[in-house]
Specification:
binds adenosine-5'-diphosphate; binds magnesium ion; about 10% strand; single chain; 10 strands; ABC transporter transmembrane region fold; about 600 residues
C-alpha cells in the first residue's frame, strides 16, 4: 500500500491535467445518458400516437435530433480531450519514474549487479513501470466515473419505476458476482501462462545464445526435446486459460440476458397495464444495460490494483537498494602535478570477499606503488588480479584494510574525483551501439573530432577504423559491425588516451591474437603508459618485461614481487607460470 502511495506521488506534478481529465470524464459520462433519454422521448412523444398532433411531433423530432447530435459531438470531443490528458499525465509520470530508476541503475554498487540478472532489472524499469502506468492513467478516474454512472443510473431507474428497479438492479450485481467468482482462478491461470511462457523463452534464448555449442556437440535433438518439454505445459495452461475465460464470459452473459428478459417482460406488462410508458420501458432497459460496464469495471479494478501494487513493490524495492557509498565530506585529491612523496597507490592489509559468507578473494595484500611506476600483475586465472585492480576506482569496497590513493583512503574521496584520474581498459571492452567515433568519445565529453582522431592514431586504431565501411561513422556494438577483441581493445585504449589519466589500469586480453594485431596493441599500450602510474594485468611477455615490478598473485595473496630476472631465478610460481603461459618451457629447460 505504501509503495502504491509512493507511485501515485509521480502524478502530483500533473495534477491540473488530472483534474481537467476528470472533469472531461464526468461530462462524457453525463453525455452518455442523453441517448437513452432521447430514446424515451422519441417513443413517447414522436412515435407513440398519443404524443400530440403531427406538427408538434415533427418539431419535437427536430429538437431531438439537434440535441442528440450536439450531445454526441460534445461527448466525442470531450472523450478525445480526456484521452489526451490521461495519456499525457500517465506518460509523463511514467517517464519521470523511469528517469529516477535509470539514475538509480547507475548509482547502484557493482555488487548489486553481481547478484541480479540484467533481465530482472530491465523488467522493473520497463514492464513494472508499464503495469503501474495503468493505474496512473485510468484507474482512479475510472472508479469515479463508474461510481457517478452507478448513482445517476440507479437514481434514474428508481425514479422512473421503483418496482422495476427492485427487479432490475440486482441483475448487474449478479453479473458482477459471476465475474468475480472466476476472478481468482482466471488470474491464477494467467499467471501460469506467463510463467510457462517465461520458461519457454528462457530455453529458446539459451539455445540461440549457445547455438555454436549445440552445433559442435550435435545437440540439436536434445535442445529440441528440452524446448518441447517446456512448450507442452504452456499448451495445456493456455487451453485452460482460454476455456476458463470463455466459460466466465458465457456464465455472466447468461445471467445478464436472463435478468434482462425478466425485466423486459415485467416492464412490458406494466406498459400494457398502463402503469409505465413504452418510452420508459425502453429507457429502463437501456440504462440498466449501461450498468454492466461499471459492474465488470469494479471486478477488474481489484485485479488491476493487485497488479499495480505488485509492480510498485518491485519498483520501490529496487529504488530502496542502497546506492554506492559516497563520502559525506570528501577530501579533495591533491592536484595532479603537485610534488608528492606519498605513494600514488597503496594497499594496506587489504582483504576482500564478494559475499559476506563467501570465501576470501584477497587476503593480506600490502603494496606501495610509486608515481610513474608500472606494475605487472601476474597469476593463475581466478587468483584475484581483476578484483585487486577493481578496488582502486572503488568498484568494490575492501572488507579489510584500506586502499589509498596519494595517501588518502579511497573511501574518503569523492567518487567522481577519484574516477576522473583513472582510466580502466577492461579485458574485453564493451562497445555501445553507436558509431566508432562516439565510442571513443565515451572516454571524455566534448572533445573535437581531431582529438578523437589523434587518440585513435595513438592507439594504433586509426588504420583499421579507416578501413571500416563508413570509417569513424561505422556503427558498432550489438547490431553493428563486429570487431575483434584486439580491435575493441584498441578502441578502449583510444578512450583511455582521451581521458589522459594519471593512473592507468589495463586488463590485457587473454585471447590469442594474430601477431600483427598483438604488436599494434603493444605499441599503443606502451605509448599510453608513458609517464603514468600503471597496473597491467599481464598476459604478454613484452608487458612483463617493461614493468618496473612484477607482482605475483596466488589464491588472493601476493606471493612474489620483483623484476623478471629475479623472479625467474628464484624459481617460484612466476617461473612456472612464465614457462607455461609464455610458451618458454623448452627455452628454460636444460
Ligand atoms: P583473475 O582476474 O585473477 O582471473 P578474479 O579477480 O576475476 O581473478 O577472480 C578472483 C575470484 O573471485 C575468483 O574465484 C572468482 O570466481 C571470484 N569472483 C570474481 N568476480 C566475482 C563476482 N563478481 N562475484 C563473486 N565472485 C567473483
Ligand atoms: Mg581477470
Amino acid at each position: 500500500m505504501r509503495s502504491l502511495h509512493r507511485a501515485l506521488r509521480y502524478v502530483i506534478p500533473y495534477w491540473r491535467w488530472q483534474v481537467a481529465a476528470l472533469l472531461c470524464a464526468l461530462l462524457v459520462t453525463a453525455s452518455e445518458f442523453v441517448w437513452p433519454w432521447m430514446n424515451k422521448v422519441l417513443i413517447d412523444q414522436v412515435l407513440w400516437p398519443g404524443g400530440g398532433d403531427a406538427a408538434h411531433r415533427v418539431s419535437a423530432l427536430n429538437l431531438l435530433v439537434v440535441v442528440t447530435v450536439s450531445a454526441m459531438i460534445a461527448g466525442t470531443l470531450l472523450g478525445l480531450a480526456r484521452s489526451y490528458m490521461f495519456a499525457r499525465v500517465s506518460e509523463r509520470a511514467a517517464a519521470d519514474l523511469r528517469r529516477d530508476l535509470f539514475r538509480h541503475v547507475h548509482a547502484l554498487p557493482m555488487a548489486f549487479y553481481d547478484r541480479r540478472k540484467t533481465g530482472g532489472v530491465m523488467s522493473v524499469v520497463q514492464n513494472d513501470v508499464e503495469a503501474l502506468q495503468g493505474l496512473y492513467a485510468a484507474t482512479l478516474v475510472e472508479v469515479l466515473t463508474n461510481i457517478l454512472m452507478v448513482f445517476v443510473a440507479s437514481g434514474l431507474l428508481i425514479w422512473r419505476s421503483p418496482t422495476l428497479a427492485a427487479i432490475g438492479l440486482p441483475v448487474p450485481v449478479a453479473f458482477a458476482v459471476a465475474l468475480a467468482l472466476f476472478g481468482r482462478p482466471l488470474r491464477n491461470a494467467g499467471r501460469r501462462v506467463r510463467d510457462d511462457t517465461g520458461a519457454v523463452q528462457e530455453v529458446l534464448q539459451e539455445s540461440i545464445a549457445g547455438v555454436r555449442e549445440v552445433r559442435i556437440f550435435g545437440r540439436a535433438a536434445a535442445a529440441l526435446a528440452r524446448y518441447m518439454d517446456r512448450v507442452m505445459p504452456l499448451v495445456s495452461s493456455r487451453i485452460r486459460q482460454a476455456v476458463m475465460g470463455t466459460a466466465n464470459g458465457a456464465l455472466a452473459r447468461l445471467i445478464a440476458m436472463g435478468g434482462m428478459t425478466v425485466v423486459l417482460s415485467v416492464g412490458a406488462r406494466m406498459a400494457i397495464a398502463g402503469s409505465m410508458s413504452a418510452g420508459d420501458v425502453v429507457l429502463f432497459l437501456t440504462v440498466l444495460g449501461m450498468l454492466f460496464g461499471p459492474a465488470s469495471a469494479f471486478v477488474n479494478l481489484y485485479a488491476g490494483i493487485a497488479v499495480a501494487m505488485g509492480a510498485a513493490d518491485r519498483i520501490f524495492e529496487f529504488c530502496d537498494a542502497p546506492a554506492e557509498a559516497q563520502a559525506s565530506a570528501p577530501t579533495p585529491l591533491p592536484p595532479r602535478d603537485a610534488a608528492q612523496d606519498t605513494p600514488a597507490v597503496s594497499f594496506t592489509d587489504v582483504g576482500f570477499r564478494y559475499d559476506a559468507e563467501g570465501p576470501d578473494v584477497l587476503c593480506g595484500i600490502n603494496l606501495e606503488v610509486r608515481r610513474g611506476e608500472v606494475i605487472a600483475l601476474v597469476g593463475p586465472s581466478g587468483s584475484g588480479k581483476t578484483t585487486l585492480v577493481s578496488l582502486i576506482p572503488r568498484l568494490y569496497d575492501v572488507t579489510a584494510g584500506a586502499v589509498l590513493v596519494h595517501g588518502l583512503d579511497v573511501r574518503s574521496l569523492d567518487l567522481m574525483d577519484l574516477r576522473s584520474r583513472i582510466a580502466f581498459v577492461p579485458q574485453e571492452p564493451y562497445l555501445f551501439g553507436t558509431t566508432v567515433a562516439e565510442n571513443i568519445r565515451f572516454g571524455k565529453d566534448g572533445v573535437s573530432d581531431d582529438e578523437v582522431l589523434g587518440a585513435a592514431r595513438a592507439a594504433n586504431a586509426h588504420a583499421f577504423i579507416e578501413a571500416l565501411p563508413e570509417g569513424y561513422a561505422t556503427q558498432v556494438g550489438e547490431r553493428g559491425t563486429r570487431l575483434s577483441v584486439g580491435q575493441k581493445q584498441r578502441i578502449a585504449i583510444a578512450r583511455a588516451i582521451l581521458r589522459d589519466p594519471e593512473l592507468l589500469i589495463l586488463d590485457e586480453a587473454t585471447s590469442a591474437q594474430d601477431s600483427e594485431s598483438e604488436r599494434l596493441v603493444q605499441e599503443a599500450v606502451a605509448r599510453l603508459m608513458q609517464g603514468r602510474t600503471a597496473f597491467v594485468i599481464a598476459h604478454r611477455l613484452s608487458t612483463v618485461h617493461r614493468a618496473d615490478r612484477i607482482v605475483v598473485l596466488d589464491s588472493g595473496r601476493i606471493t612474489e614481487i620483483g623484476r623478471h630476472e629475479e623472479l625467474v631465478r628464484s624459481n617460484g610460481l612466476y617461473a612456472r607460470l612464465h614457462s607455461m603461459q609464455f610458451g618458454m618451457a623448452r627455452a628454460t629447460s636444460p
